[in-house]
C-alpha cells in the first residue's frame, strides 16, 4: 500500500484512477470518485445490490445530490444540524447528479454522511464528495488497523504515518443508517447513534 502525502492522496483520488483509504469517526473509509464507484465494488468483491455512501466535508456539499420538496429539505436539514458531523447516514431520494454506479440496483436513493473526523473532512474539503464504504472484503468485518488494510488491499493510497500519528482513532462502530420513507424515518442499521426521537425532529 503506497503511503503518500496529503496532496498526493487528494490528487490520486481526483484523477479517477486511484482508490484511497482514510480514517473516519466510525471505521476507516474506502473511497473513490463518485463516477468511479465501480472500483470499490471490484476491490471489495461487493454485490451490486449493496449501495455506497456519498461522504462530504459539509452538509452544503451534499444537497445537490438529493431530491425533495422544500418541506422535506427543511426536515432533513434539521436532522443534519443536530447529528452532523457525526455517525449518522441518511438515505434520501437521489437527484440526477448521483452517478448510477453508487447504487446500481436502486439509483432512486443515495446514502449521505458528514463524518466527525478532522482528516476525513480535510480530504473531502479538497476532493468534494466521495463514494465511500468500509475497508473490507464483502461479508467480512471492517478492517480497523492500517497494517490489516495494507495486507489485504495493497493497491490503496493512504496517508503516510507522520500525518496519521495525530489523527483520532476510529470508534470501530459503523454509522447508524436511516431511510426517509416519504413521511417518516426507518432505521436500516443501528450503529453509533441512537435515534429514539428522529421522527419528532424530522
Gross morphology: globular
CATH architecture: Alpha-Beta Complex
For the largest beta sheet, what order do the strands appear in spatially? 2-3-7-4-6-5-9-10
Rg, rounded, reads 16 Å
Q: Structural class per helix/strand content?
A: alpha/beta
Report on the biggest sheet.
Answer: 8 strands, mixed
In short:
The protein is of the alpha/beta class and about 200 residues long. Helix content is about 25%, strand content about 20%.
Q: What this model shows, in words?
A:
- There is one protein chain.
- This protein is of the alpha/beta class and 202 residues long.
- The protein has one domain (3-201): DHBP synthase, CATH 3.90.870.10.
- The chain has seven helices and ten strands.
- It has an eight-stranded mixed β-sheet, covered by helices on one side.
- The radius of gyration is 16 Å and the shape is globular.
How are the secondary structure elements laid out?
Layout: E1 3-4, H1 6-14, E2 20-22, E3 29-32, H2 38-44, E4 53-55, H3 70-83, E5 88-93, E6 109-113, H4 118-127, E7 130-134, H5 146-152, E8 158-159, H6 161-164, E9 176-180, E10 185-189, H7 198-201
Parallel strand pairs: 1-8, 4-6, 5-9
Antiparallel strand pairs: 2-3, 3-7, 4-7, 5-6, 9-10
Task: Kindly list the characteristics that best describe this protein.
202 residues, alpha/beta, DHBP synthase, 10 strands, 27% helix, 20% strand, globular
